[in-house]
Amino acid sequence: MKKIFSVITAAVMISAMFSCGAKDRTKSVNNLNDWQKEVLAAEGLPTEADQLTDSQLRSIQRIYEMITYLNEKYDEEFIYGGYLEPAANQTETLYAYPRLLGADYGRNTVTVRATKDGFTDDYSDRSIVDYAERMANDFMKDYFKSDQVIAFFSVNACDIEKNEVVDGDFQWKLGVSDIIFVNEDICNTDQVEEFAVNYAKWLYEHELDGRHRINVVKDYDVNNMDYGNIREYYESEDYIGFYSFAFNSNKNKVYQDEFLSTRNENEYNIEVFFSKYN
């Protein structure tokens, strides 16, 4: 069974399937299907219902209900990734990813949560984040007239669907964390702030919120990076430094942080920040 345990933090992978619990020898035996048995075997658990604890049996039943909800809602197959049992301060949650897209180091993880009326999921959020990421990458490559820049987006908050985006306007309803890598051949440490200001203007024009980190690297083709290995470069000898920024909630200030030759933090009125390279 292909799983994504390596790309979701251990904290969220604590599954009720590992709960011990007492076995109720008088309970009726529930039949398990092949899919459920495959998941149990991958976890190193018994594949017969009468050998599971009550907690484990309930969990595998709920996992199947939640994965079936995804499969039927989107008419495609999802791969199981992890499960959180319900608790006092914890919502019952399933993690999965679409087979067609693959796990992509956790980037395509879909979260399903139980509600009093059934289930909710965030699969639609992924498509709008992909859309925003493509727009940003197109802007950057056009800005530099080079392919030696790449951005990776992940969602922080989303209250908009893709069909509600008109002319690239996200209406401040999408918040992302974007990690950008740019080769110093096209953007060195003296040029990164000017790029950041122009990128901030582009984000403001498209009403796209979030935290934005621009990393400068040397002697490396950024097109060889992917979502799974980007953090390795923070400690690489090819890594030079970063420049990051974010808008405040009222969108009238910019909080800026950098570690290039030295570490600096600043707060700007947004008009002042936008006018730095006029």
TrEMBL record:
Keywords recorded for this protein, A-Z:
Signal
Q: Tell me the leader sequence span.
A: 1-22
What name appears for this protein in its UniProt entry? Lipoprotein
